[in-house]
Each structure stands twice: as structure tokens, then as C-alpha cells.
Automatic annotation (TrEMBL):
InterPro entries xrefs: Ion_tolerance_CutA, N-reg_PII-like_a/b, N-reg_PII/ATP_PRibTrfase_C
SUPFAM superfamilies: GlnB-like
Family named by the database record: Belongs to the CutA family.
Matching PANTHER family: DIVALENT CATION TOLERANCE CUTA-RELATED (PTHR23419), FI09726P (PTHR23419:SF8)
Lineage: Bacteria, Bacillati, Actinomycetota, Actinomycetes, Pseudonocardiales
Organism: Actinomycetospora endophytica
Protein name: Divalent-cation tolerance protein CutA
Superkingdom of the organism of origin: Bacteria
Gene3D superfamilies registered for this protein in UniProt: 3.30.70.120
């Protein structure tokens, strides 16, 4: 597998507690050119410890595709716009994939309105 086409592409995962917020966040990320595409998956069940207690809650997962150089801006945007006190934001490097798609991700996140566009 050739890693070079994907090295500039990252998948960022976050979750939220409602379909409405998931859609609001997804639309906002795409509108701001912070993500080329955001898939909303859910509902899913998440088990976690928060404030000393274990909880199992229904959430919606967002899977955003973005350029590596946009991860910090995307993370800051989620932190500012998310309803959770400590939202999950996990960035996973893409090591390869369909070059035209990966190129589209980079192009979409570098358009007008994007910093350093």
C-alpha cells in the first residue's frame, strides 16, 4: 500500500447526545471548510466514566474527513460549538486510500473561507 496519498488526510471522530446536534455540528464543519464530509452514525451506545460514575448513554458519532493542517482549527471549532464540557475529539491519520477522494478532501478544506486558503 502506498501511504503518500493519504498522509495529508485525517479522520476526526466526535460524539454528541442528539441527532439534531450531530447534524448542526456536521453542517457547521462542512460549511466552515473544516471538513470535506461528515458522516453521522447512530444512535450508538457509549459506556464511560464521568464524574466518578460509570454511565451508558445513547450518542451519535460524527466521522469527519479533513486535511491534516486543519485538525487544530477543527478541534477548536468543536470545543467552542459542542454542548459537552469535554467533547471527544480524536484524530486518526489516513495512511492510504482512493487518491481522487483524498485529493477532494484536501481541496474542500482549503477553499475560500479556510484560513491560509
Amino acid at each position: 500500500m502506498t501511504a503518500s496519498p493519504g498522509t495529508d488526510t485525517v479522520v476526526v471522530v466526535t460524539t454528541t447526545d442528539s441527532d439534531a446536534e450531530a447534524e448542526r455540528l456536521a453542517r457547521g464543519l462542512v460549511d466552515a471548510h473544516l471538513a470535506a464530509c461528515v458522516q453521522i452514525v447512530g444512535p450508538v451506545r457509549s459506556a464511560f466514566r464521568w464524574e466518578g460514575a460509570v454511565s451508558v448513554e445513547t450518542e451519535w458519532q460524527l466521522v469527519a474527513k479533513t486535511a491534516a493542517d486543519r485538525v487544530d482549527d477543527l478541534t477548536a471549532w468543536i470545543a467552542a460549538e459542542h454542548s459537552y464540557d469535554v467533547p471527544e475529539v480524536i484524530a486518526l491519520p489516513v495512511v492510504g486510500g482512493h487518491a481522487p477522494y483524498l485529493g477532494w478532501v484536501i481541496e474542500e478544506t482549503q477553499r475560500e473561507g479556510a484560513p491560509d486558503a
